[in-house]
Amino acid sequence: MASELVRVVALLGAAIVAVPIFQRLGLGSVLGYLAAGLAIGPHGLGWFTDPEAMLHVAELGVVMFLFVIGLEMRPSHLWGLRRAIFGLGALQILTCSVVLTGVGLALGLDLPVAAVGAWGFVLTSTAIVIQVLTDRGDVAQPRGQQIVAVLLFEDLLIVPLLAIVSLMAPDHGGDAEGGSRLAKVGIAMGTLAGLITAGVWLLNPLFRLLAIARAREVMTAAALLVVLGAALLMDLGGLSMAMGAFLAGVLLAESTFRHQIEADIEPFRGILMGLFFLSVGMALDVGVVTASWPVVVSGVLAMMAAKAVCVYAVARVTRAGHADALDRAVLMAQGGEFAFVLFAAAVGGGVIGAEVGAQLTAIVVLSMALTPLAMLALRLRRSPAPSLDGIEVAEGLSGSVLMVGFGRFGQVASQALLARGVDLTIIDNDVEMIRTATEFGFKVYYGDGTRLDVLRASGAGQARAIAVCVEGAEAADRIVELARAEFPQAQLLVRSYDRIHSVRLVQAGVDYQIRETFESALRFGEAALRAVGVADDEAAEIAVEIRRRDEARFESELAQGMGAGRDQVVFNLPRPVPFTPPQREGRVIGGGPDHPPDAPAAAPPDQRPAEPE
């Protein structure tokens, strides 16, 4: 017992020492874990001799990571990503497989070995990529969603790749083995159907019963049971454990308990993800690298460069911008944890030799270790990350009103509250804006309002009102979702992007919403009427009529359920207000695109083309 406790202490101690140092150097936590694992592993101090066994346990970190990602994706949203998953994912995998197989042949490998090596390297590390996206807050952003879609396709791909490796094995058993494989496919489909059925009919009633019992520790245990149970079921069916956990998360994405489940899982996920990276560091066989360093080094550089070029090319072909394509190429240029499974199966089946398998494994591990360095180089090439020196992070705050976002809209909205002496807490994640606001006497804390832990640390649990003044509609929707579920005591006031967004906010149950440009644009139009000679009372009457008609359109769209689809692209083009402009002696005053100045009145306004808001 004491020896096992020593191992646990060693793991925790190595992580606690290495990770802060690497973060302080700007190298990131992932590289810190990898270095710590290498230091205490069998090829370092030798405190651990079986990294493969630990890696198998540590894969639960990846499993929980995918479960949390699944909680963020409603089934409708996942369906909206189907083209990215099966279109972008398939195109990237096919392109990279062909090119990397060619690289393997150029390095002197036989075709079967080159193909297996290419397939292993094509499977990007889900753990590293999702960790980086989470640290940057990009998981919910469009560019992050594209990357997640490709990772999901790769998770689905591991099963057919293992089947292909089995077919490539010599003396694989002929018809009997073929029948066995068909049986395995049937079992896999059955377990998948069973998981979906259980998720649809059992999970929500289960958590509802546990919530009535008001036992927090039982809710935590149930969350772990769901994650591990889904992973185990998919593993028994021959599928990816991570994919099972992801599906369980998706099935719970519509649940009212999902934020509580996410909070319960988060500590376990973080610890196990750290253990996973430690295990990967331990798995790096320094002896293999030293004995065949020309092969390993050239393999790492060639594979990473070729895959990065392929990923960049596919991203550009699918209309991604240069910056996003370059970011995706560098982030996804490494191999992943599923390569270890594929290489082990290939070695066991006699498709590749043990020495070649060790070299390929070393190439993948080194590529995973180099990815944080490559991301750091890309970040430094663009611009250095802003420092938080002198900026207070949101922690232990409280106030009557919590304002999230302090851009132009928030700055104006805050003045009335501050003038009245309201106890106002302001958070934002723009470092330069915070520094500028500080120079003008404002107290703004650093914090990402789309994160539940940050909202709690900012005092959302005690606030009487939460004012959401962020610029992006997606970020505002995320904050609304969290606030409605976790802080029902607070009035929720939200800055809206457009009418469709306003409809969505009303459907979400906000207490007050206002479009960011509507009122100012209406006042602007009223002033323009006065500038061309329209009387003050007539200009005001037109503005009132426009506002009334807009409210009628809004109520109509709300009744029709518009705005419910988060992924739909809608041009917010309302019909022109059917208001007959005042006339003087048969002439139209003021003019416009359909009525030039001093031109006779034409068709009724209802028949004119739609004009933007």
Rounded to an integer in angstroms, the radius of gyration calculated over CA atoms is 29 Å
At CATH level 3, the topology of the largest domain is Na+/H+ antiporter like fold
Q: Between the first and last Cα atoms, what is the distance in angstroms?
A: 71 Å
User: At the first level of CATH, what is the class of the largest domain?
Assistant: Mainly Alpha
Number of domains: 2
Shape by Cα distribution:
elongated
- Taken as a percent bin, the fraction of beta residues is under 5%
Mean pLDDT: 75
Please summarize the sheet with the most strands.
6 strands, parallel
Helix and strand content put the structural class at: mainly alpha
Explain what the structure shows.
It is elongated and about 90 Å long. Strands 3-2-1-4-5-6 form a 6-stranded parallel beta sheet, sandwiched between helices. Strands 7-8 form a two-stranded antiparallel sheet. It is built from 24 helices and 8 strands. With 613 residues, the chain is mostly helical. The chain has 2 domains: 2-169 and 188-382, Na+/H+ antiporter like fold (Up-down Bundle), CATH 1.20.1530.20; 401-582, Rossmann fold (3-Layer(aba) Sandwich), CATH 3.40.50.720. The chain is 66% helix and 5% strand. Helix 6 (111-122) runs antiparallel to helix 8 (142-168). The chain has helices at 2-24, 29-40, 51-71, 75-80, 82-106, 111-122, 126-136, 142-168, 174-213, 216-236, 241-251, 258-283, 286-291, 293-317, 322-331, 338-348, 354-382, 408-419, 431-439, 452-457, 473-486, 499-508, 518-531, 536-560, and strands at residues 401-404, 424-428, 445-446, 465-468, 491-496, 512-515, 583-584, 587-588.
